[in-house]
Model the fold of this input.
Amino acid sequence: MEIVVFAIISVVATVCAIFVISHRNPVSSALFLIATMVSLAILFLTLNAPFLAAIQIIVYAGAIMVLFLFVIMLLNLRKDEFGPERKRAQRFFAILFGFLFLILIATAIDVGLSTVGNPEVSTTKLAPAGVEMLAELLFTKYLFPFEIASVLLLVAIVGAVVMAKRKL
Amino acid sequence: MLDTLKTIFLAIPKGLSVTFKYLLTKPITVQYPDQKLILSDRYRGLHYLKRNEDGTEKCVCCGLCAAACPSECIYMEPAENEFGERYAKIYEINELRCIFCGYCQEACPKEAIFLSKEYEFSIDKREKLIYTKEDLLKKGQRSTD
Amino acid sequence: MVTFIIITLIKILIVFVFFLLMIAYLTWLERKLLGHFQVRLGPMRVGPHGLLQPFADGIKLLFKEDVTPAKVNKFIYNLAPLLTFIPALIIMAVIPFGDQIKIFGQSINLVISDFNMGILYVFAVTSLSVYGIVLAGWSSNNKYSLLGGLRSSAQMISYEVSLALSLIGVFMIAGSLSLVEIVKSQDKLFSWFIFRQPLGFILYLVCAIAETNRAPFDLPEADNELVAGYYTEYSSMKFAMFFLGEYGSMINVSALATTLFLGGWQGPFLPPVLWFLIKVCAFLFFYIWVRATLPRFRYDQLMNFGWKVLLPLTLLNILLTATIMVL
Done:
């Protein structure tokens, strides 16, 4: 059952992700990105992490992507305005970061493989706790990264306000 | 902020109470085909022409009603009968143009034309609303009966 | 396992049919009540007191010509009505409408799915329901539709934050995210969360009205400035879908308020399901009452109110709740 769901959803997620970058119409790309997010949420569900799944949908699909769509619609780009003008520097950085990302994925898979069969991190043990366990971990073991992330977000917000309101 | 709170806790409940009072009042709707409004005595509906006691038409085709009519909906052609009296050979009212002002009734020196209280006259062809003299007289018969 | 599936399917069927009927009769109730608020009678002619009016409307809409304008994005244009309607439909899955009952020796929970993060599921689904409106506005290729869509997305994002935060107090006291648990924690009249969370309740009320795009927050469909907002170009059944979605989400929000603040299905004498319905209907009545009373917000007022009044108040509510709990 889980394997079947995983197979279907992962294929859907991958195909949608490919469409995100291959589609010409920005709104369609955004829609495929939403589809990817939702299928990721379903994958979280199969991993017994309903909290993460819900948050994935609420935050990414429900809030951030709406803002994406909002901006795309406000700009209302026509076909000729985002034609094939790719800068060389852009291509260089794209390849560089793509390579780095590949390394990241490889490491993640490596770490993942090493934990297979390890009872301490198996998902079944996490399941009953859910929110409480996540909260406890966030406020004890991972307090520092948690706070760093919040500061990062705060900086982003302040930056946005400064950029938007020059005369403050 | 304080103003907003005042609105939320004072103004909105006040407004709600007003509308609630209206919810409890009896609706003034008249269920039209089943119930009808009582028309005022001075209501102006479709026209009719009157006859004399002896059955002759009161109208002498003087043309004052047509002259008084602001929407020019009355058309008439005079003729003389065997006694040499004037009468209307053709007398037509285009009820599509009529604005039901009642000036024709006021203008008439012979008290021949009146406005009835009839207001239901929907039809399926526009031509049917151009009333001839016969139609108007027939209506007069009915409203005096 | 098989009996479980059968029971669940039956429950889904019953809830589905009942939900659609409720939507139909909500339209009737709204027209009727608005009529009486304006000292009119409302629908009277189709059936006694217009009781068959919803069906007449439904048949009319079904047989209307379905117009698709030439320059729309066909796929998204057809998808958008579904995207507004389906989220409204599936929220009912987690709302408990009655206590456990026993039929044929089977004990049945009167909720389709009682899982321990029910409320998060509700948030997730409501956060998706904005897409239907936004995409309808965009794909129609019409400036009024687009403006309506943009307004609604901005509005829904702004008010969703406050909506979620206004409920945090309830979860803090109840100590659970499961809707069934929250209902069970309100077993006495004065343990209803409307008494323990009065500020939270008022905030939820306001946000809920805004979230469902109802008057006085019905800017996305402000008739007199945007024609009909995001569904200007829609006709026939697709047009009806938007309304099914809108009225459906009204019922959802009311059901959620009943569950979270008014003690759910609990009440004396009457059977639980009836209590649940009574409370939901009381809420829906309030909705229509507000619509009959208040004029529409201006767009800047709406945004100011959402971010500068509602959001600080929800945060204050959380702070107060936390302080009292610690003391």
Summary: Chain B is about 30% helix and 15% strand.
